[in-house]
Amino acid sequence: MSGVDSAIIDLQTKLSFQDGLLEELNQVVTEQQHQIMRMESALEALRVQVKTLQTDNRSGEAKEPLPPHY
After folding, report:
1. Which tens digits make up the pLDDT trace of 29-68?
2. pLDDT of residue 1
3. How far apart are the first and last CA of the chain?
4. SS3 letters for the chain?
5. What separation in angstroms does the CA of 25 have from each of 11, 14, 64?
6. What are phi and psi of 67, to 5 degrees?
7. Cα separation of 39 and 47, whole Å?
8. What distances in angstroms separate CA 57 from CA 20, 48, 51, 66, 68, one per listed residue?
9. Residue (of 65, 61, 63, 64) closest to 53 by Cα position
10. What is the Rg, in whole angstroms, of the alpha carbon atoms belonging to the chain?
11. Residues 33, 36: Cα–Cα separation, whole Å
């Protein structure tokens, strides 16, 4: 086998390895994107819950004065 053939085989091996790594990285990024979307959805649900609790709490406190530390 000549030096050129050896170099070509070496390059093909490296390219194949890099293709595998790229696919693995793509899978990780895709899963992280799904995880981020789930977390954003959960955060929005928490925002709604907190806003609802604050609104409910304010309507109950409207008749009573706030303590001095507020």
Report:
1. 999 999 999 999 999 999 999 999 998 887 765 556 667 8
2. 79
3. 84
4. CCHHHHHHHHHHHHHHHHHHHHHHHHHHHHHHHHHHHHHHHHHHHHHHHHHHHHHHHHHHHCCCCCCCCC
5. 21, 16, 57
6. -65, 160
7. 12
8. 55, 14, 10, 12, 18
9. 61
10. 29
11. 5
CA angle 55, 61, 62 (to 5 degrees): 90
Give me 37's structure tokens: 């979307």
**What is the Cα–Cα distance from 16 to 9, expressed in whole angstroms?**
10
